[in-house]
Amino acid sequence: MKVKAAVAYSAGKPLSIEMVDLAGPQAGEVLVEIKATGVCHTDAYTLSGADPEGLFPAILGHEGAGIVAEIGAGVTSVKVGDRVIPLYIPECRNCEYCLSRKTNLCQAIRLTQGQGVMPDGTSRFSIDGQKIHHYMGTSTFANYTVLPEIAVAKIRDDAPFDKVCLIGCGVTTGIGAVINTAKVEPGSNVVVFGLGGVGLNVIQAARLVGANMIVGVDLNSEKRQMAEKFGMTHFVNPSEIEGDLVAYLVDLTKGGADYTFECIGNINVMRQALECCHKGWGVSVIVGVAGAGQEISTRPFQLVTGRVWKGTAFGGAKGRTDVPKIVDWYMDGKINIDSLVSQVMPIEQINQAFDAMHKGEVIRTVLTF
Ligand code: APR
Ligand code: ZN
User: Which cofactors go with this protein (predicted)?
Assistant: First the structure.
């Protein structure tokens, strides 16, 4: 079939809207009509050429929602008409990783996903007979995409696509970091570095679990108002305080934070986030994605004296199990997604959506088809 897609032909070039060929789902795969997709920093990172694993040409996009249009042989967990969210971390419930119950990093299709192809080693996308790579196993910048069954989360039938698509990445990453990875307890003091789409979700989850202080740190004071709406209790702009930021935050939290979250991807901030944790028990979670090859550092004494450094991918969420629950939380009014959607535009304006993200003008742009 012919589908409409934003094709990334090469690094650093604008995306091009094309009609491309999409082959139908093979055994164990599903065809999904994508109804809405967010634009996230990871897409921009790969498009920029800075991602050493980036493959071109490719159809990017990993924060989508849609409807199952066709199922391949042997597919049992979803049927035509089901609403789904594509998962860039699948959940096979069968591999060593899934069975460990200690991680969400299912490895069932890891190798082929990284190679930009389906589990059988081939791509479903092509243009004029030339192969186009899949991206993160999702390729949501197309109005139809093919996914392995284990990489779709079935969600309820009344969930609005242009909101719940953000659960495919940013919302789950932030909320899951608090609930699954850090397991923040009621009464905890929390510091969140970076008040973008991810940081705001950390904040609303911290409020949800009953945190005491929720301190937001951002160089851009314009982020304050929105963060307060999500539950931030104290705001710190590092450029406006005198002296050392770590000492300031330790003082503010009366001895250090119980939990901190780095939601920027800056290795210097990662160090600050660890070091403003409380001696003896403070836990710092790296959520932001640093550039390839970058390294973090601190004095080992920080860990010897009880601080813990962790990281999280997709908020530690097991996609098929946890994503439907987060959709329910949204539908029940427990979490706010509406305020994260700064603008909705047709896929044809995707390059403007990237520009707006680079300028820091938006929390998220949602594209529709
Ligand atoms: N100190 C404090 N705040 C900073 C700093 C800094 N050194 N550098 C940037 N910021 C703030 C920005 O002002 C912005 O508000 O961090 C925020 C980052 O937000 P976004 O750019 O909207 O990013 P977001 O979508 O939240 O993603 C954050 O998570 O998924 C990853 O790749 C993504 O690494 C990125 C991170
Ligand atoms: Zn698995």
Answer: Zn(2+)
